[in-house]
Amino acid sequence: MDRGLVGMESDTYALVKSSIKKLLAIDLDYYKDEQMKRRLDSWLVRSQRSSWRDYFHYVASNPEEQQRLRDYLTINVTEFFRDPERWATLKREVLPALLEQSPVGLRVWSAGCSTGVEAYTLAILLDEVAPHRKHWILATDIDRGALQKARAGGPYTTDEIRNLTPQQRTRYIDSKAQNYVRAELVQRVTFREQDLFTDRFETGFDLIVCRNVVIYFTNEAKNMLYRKFQAALRPGGVLFLGGTEIIPHPAEVGLQNFGISFYRKIGG
C-alpha cells in the first residue's frame, strides 16, 4: 500500500525518506516516525497524487512543489513572546545574570528561528535590558522560505504580534507596513541557513534559544543536539528550551537546571 491515512507501510516510508533526503537534503531519520508518517499521509492526500512514486516523479521536475514540500516538512508555528512567562523569566533573571559575566555584550543564537519572530523577540529584550551594549544575534533555520520572510522582517499577522505590549508595538513594529518590524531591528540580527544535524555550530554563545524544535525529533537526535548546543555555549552560558522540552538527565550532557526551560553549561 502506497498511500492513504490508514498508515504508511515501512517499505513505503523508507522510500519516502530516501527520496526526500536526495531531493531536499532533509534527513527524516531524526524525526519521530509516527508523527512524520501522519504529516506525510496528509500531504499526499492534499497533493492528489495516486502514490508516492507518482508524487516524486512529479516533484523532481517542479522546483515550486519542492519548496512547498520543504516548507511543509519544516514546521513553522511561532509568535512573538510565545509562552510569555518564560520570556519574562529570561528578561528578569537570566539576561541580567549573563550580562554580569559578559558586560560588553551578549552572543545569542536563535536555533530553528523559523520566520524570525523569536530572533526579533530577543532583539527587543536586549534593547530593553541593555540597549547600549554590542550584542550579536545569530538566527538560523533550514527552511529557506521562512528565512526569506525573516530577513524581510515580515509581514507578521495580528496573532503573531499579539503578545507585544502597546509600547513595543509602537517602537518596534511598523503598523502602516503590514506589521513589518522596523529596519533598525532587522539590522541587529544575522540570518543564515543551517541544518542543525549536519552543519557545524559557532561557539562561545552566552545564550542559545531553541524552543519548540526538538519536540519533533527522536530521543537519539535530541541527545545529539543537546551535546552540540552544550559545546557551543561558553562556560556558564544558558540553553533556553520550549515549555514541554525537558532534558531528563542534564548532567550527562554537561548542563544543569537553571529554572524551568533553562539549562546552564556546567563550569561557569
UniProtKB/TrEMBL annotation:
CDD domains: AdoMet_MTases (cd02440). It comes from the Bacteria. Coiled coil: none annotated. One of its GO terms (biological process) is methylation. Residues 20-268 form the CheR-type methyltransferase domain. The keyword Methyltransferase applies. Keywords: Methyltransferase, S-adenosyl-L-methionine, Transferase. GO terms for molecular function: S-adenosylmethionine-dependent methyltransferase activity. It holds the Pfam family CheR_N. InterPro entries: Bact_Chemotaxis_MeTrfase (IPR050903), CheR_C (IPR022642), CheR_MeTrfase (IPR000780), CheR_N (IPR022641), SAM-dependent_MTases_sf (IPR029063). This is Protein-glutamate O-methyltransferase CheR. It comes from Anaerolinea thermolimosa. The lineage of its organism: Bacteria, Bacillati, Chloroflexota, Anaerolineae, Anaerolineales.
